[in-house]
Amino acid sequence: MSRPESRITKRFAQLKADKRAGLVTYITAGDPDAEISYQILKGLPGAGADLIELGMPFTDPMADGPSIQLAGQRALKAGMTVEKTFDMVRRFRKETGDNDTPILLMGYYNLVYQRGPEKFCKDAAAAGVDGFILVDLPPEEADELKPHASANGLDTVLLTAPTTDDARLPAVLKFASGFVYFVSVLGITGTKSATEEAVRTHVERIKRHTKLPVGVGFGIRTPEQAAAVARHADAAVVGTAIIDHVKAGLDDKGRAKPELVPGVFAYIKALVDGVRGVRKA
Amino acid sequence: MPSAPNSFRTGPDERGHFGIFGGRYVAETLMPLILDLEKAYSEAKADPQFQGELKYLLAQYAGRPSPLYFARRLTEKLGGAKIYLKRDELNHTGSHKINNVLGQVLLAKRMGKTRVIAETGAGQHGVATATACALFDIPCVVFMGSVDVERQAPNVARMKMLGAEVRPVTAGASTLKDAMNEALRDWVATCENTFYCIGTVAGPHPYPAMVRDFQCVIGEEVRKQMMEAEGRLPDTLVACIGGGSNAMGLFHPFLDDPGVRIVGVEAAGRGLDTEEHAASLTGGRPGVLHGNRTYLLQDKEGQITEAHSISAGLDYPGIGPEHSWLKEMGRVEYVSATDDEAVEAFQFLCKLEGIIPALESSHGLAHAMRLAPTLPKDNLLVLNLSGRGDKDVPQIAERLGIKI
Q: Is A165 part of the contact surface with chain B (CB cutoff 8 Å)?
């Protein structure tokens, strides 16, 4: 269960009080390099991101489409590591003084397992991380991580999919805290988009099983799509489309052009307008 | 080392774990499908009609049982153990892969799936899957690293002739690991109608156990054949290991016979002292990839490193989780053979016995050639000749400077 003091819980409570849905933005840590990536991270709250997902690059991202695969490769090539990802978060908390915006680490379990689940949780919490989304760690395997996450005040945001039926949902939700991430389409990141009707049906179904907020992701690219999700869910998650804007800001040698960082923020601001244009009851 | 269990043959547990290995590390989208598959497989396993159909196909379509051949010239030349070759290279499609594929494609049909996907390294599993899909009239897509497409061209042509679509994968090092990533990505998007036919004893539960069960026909036949030939069980079993399905198929029926020495041979590529090998048990450590926890080649942080082997079928940085467990339990010895040793063994068998072995199986052979001279003449050694080398002819010819 989520602790009352978790940044994630507080942020969703605030969104509810503000009668609007939130925008969750994903970036890959270290893409295209550690410094530019930090510049993006630092500016995300100002651009209107309510929660931040920071992807830990992995050599074999089997749930990701080409955009996020390539972002991970750029980051690894530029020398990104788990330790440097923690450094980014630590620096963000220190330099910006932002002690409210939740930061979740997203990625694959092997990086956690190699550090040791206990040490990973301790180090992440000490750096200012608020929780995890681990794509290849279903509830069936989560008992190795969950006690250490809880002991360090970290939320475990579990994924639910269109294939997660009513019979299975309780087993998933038992391990979930912070919010529930609904993967709105069958597929990898950044490939296809769900209809608004499908999003509505599934979010209502999940909410019959839990009081946790529901974030919806996969396939959200335009402010209109973000608004459509915001009408039904507590947050819209955008990843691939942001990464595509990072990539668009690279020159042919893969170096960041001056317009990269402002380009990413301009795009996020458009998404924010979409999400905030929806008033919730 | 953990204490020995009463039996080495009871795994996995209900969650798919062999000790700390195995499990189901997949995206939530796939989880319900994996659970369905587990249920469908355990029903099929207990269904005499399913088993009967599989048995018929193995006998009349694939050509089982494969012979257990006493390699007299090889034995005399090496001057030690009495060497028998389990001739799984004589199966239809040229390797042990067909044993598993017929089982899985029958299951796909039974589950009402309308499309089959597979990953392949050397192309042997791809060819077997394309074959079974032709037989059962199911559309088939095979993912294959673009480097492997290049070095295993004959098998690519075979798959296409059999009606399968071959999708070259250019991510990463463009070999087996990347093909498996891409197959998993396809499956997440198509899981409602698509059956993923995994080629080895790896992946999320129930695959390691299911593929093992389908491959156990190898070891079960050897038990019977050796009793007929020699009136007793073999003393030594040797097989090559990439993911480890041919080895598991031979080994598993003998795990509870303490008198049987069991040896798995990994690919040492350019040498274990280099970074260019595929020996995950010898050179790796436990990690999580492709749905299971197992020994993996990886860096300090847990980034997966590229494997290397001359043999595309062994060029994989992981291994089936049950092998990881058997290593930790000390029941099976795991050793390795280099590219050069495998090529030498390949040539040796060609000239001595008139059998062209697959480069994969040549790794097992290379170790058998090291081991046999150290063993007494009454030691019965079985080497699993898991595949034939036709697919490797262009590659070896080039290496040996033979013009074709």
A: yes
Size of interface A-B (CB pairs under 8 A): 116
Show the beta-strand stretches assigned E in B165-307: 165-169, 194-196, 236-240, 261-269, 285-289, 291-296
The verdict on a CB contact (< 8 Å) between B304 and A115 is: no
Q: Is the peptide bond before A117 cis (omega within 30 degrees of 0)?
A: no
- pLDDT tens-digit series, residues B163-194: 999 999 998 778 899 999 999 999 999 999 99
Is A278 part of the contact surface with chain B (CB cutoff 8 Å)?
Answer: no
Domain-located, residue A76:
yes
- In B, which residues are within 8 Å of A219 by CB distance? none
Average pLDDT rounded to a whole number, residues B216-245: 98
The reply to whether A2 falls in a domain is no
Give the strand pairing for A214-217 and A180-183: parallel
Chain B contacts of A160, Cβ < 8 Å? 28
Whether B119 is catalytic is yes
Segments making up each domain of chain B, as ranges: 17-58+97-211, 64-94+216-400
Q: Is A62 on the interface with B (CB under 8 A)?
A: yes
- pLDDT tens digit sequence for B124-146: 999 999 999 999 999 999 999 99
How many other C-beta atoms lie within 10 A of the C-beta of residue A125? 17
Residues A187, B188: C-beta atoms closer than 8 Å: yes
Full DSSP string of A135-188: TT--GGGGGGTHHHHHHTT-EE--EE-TT--TTTHHHHHTT--S-EEEE-SSSS
Q: Which residues of A touch B291 (CB under 8 A)?
A: 136
The residue of chain A with its CA nearest to that of B288 is: A110
Q: What residue numbers bound the domain in which A32 lies?
A: 7-275
Q: What pLDDT digit, counting tens, does each position of B255-286 carry? A: 999 999 999 999 999 999 999 999 999 999 99
Cβ within 8 Å, pair B288-A82 = no
Q: How far apart are CA B360 and CA B267, in angstroms?
A: 8
Q: Which residues contact A176 (CB under 8 A, 6 or more apart)?
A: A156, A157, A158, A210, A212
Query: Smallest Cα–Cα separation from B390: which of B404, B401, B380?
Result: B404
Q: Please tell me which residue, B154 or A85, carries the higher pLDDT value.
A: A85
Cβ proximity of B337 and B268 under 8 Å: yes
Residue A281 located in a structural domain: no
Does residue B221 carry a catalytic annotation? no
Q: Is the pLDDT of residue A4 over 60?
A: no
Query: What's the CATH code, domain B64-94+216-400?
Result: 3.40.50.1100
Which CATH number characterizes residue A150's domain? 3.20.20.70
CB-nearest partner of B26 from A76, A114, A136? A136
- Contact criterion met (CB below 8 Å) for A32 and A75: yes
The CATH T-level fold of domain B17-58+97-211 is Rossmann fold (3.40.50)
Catalytic residue, from B82, B86, B97, B177: name it: B97
**pLDDT over 70 (residue A62):** yes
Instruction: Please say if B160 is a catalytic residue.
Output: no
Closest CB to B27 among A114, A135, A165? A135
ipTM of the complex: 0.95
Q: Give me the number of domains chain A comprises.
A: 1
Q: Do domains B17-58+97-211 and B64-94+216-400 have the same CATH topology?
A: yes
- Please check whether residue A203 is in contact with residue A232, taking contact to mean a CB–CB distance below 8 angstroms: yes
Instruction: Report the alpha-carbon distance of residue A203 to residue A215 in Å, rounded.
Output: 9
A1 part of a folded domain: no
Query: Which residue of B lies nearest to A139 if distances are taken between CA atoms?
Result: B28
Residue B1, pLDDT > 70, answer no
Q: Which residue of A lies nearest to B14 if distances are taken between CA atoms?
A: A140
CB within 8 Å: A160 and B28: yes
Token pair in block for residue A41: 């991270």
A70 has a chain B CB within 8 A of its CB: no
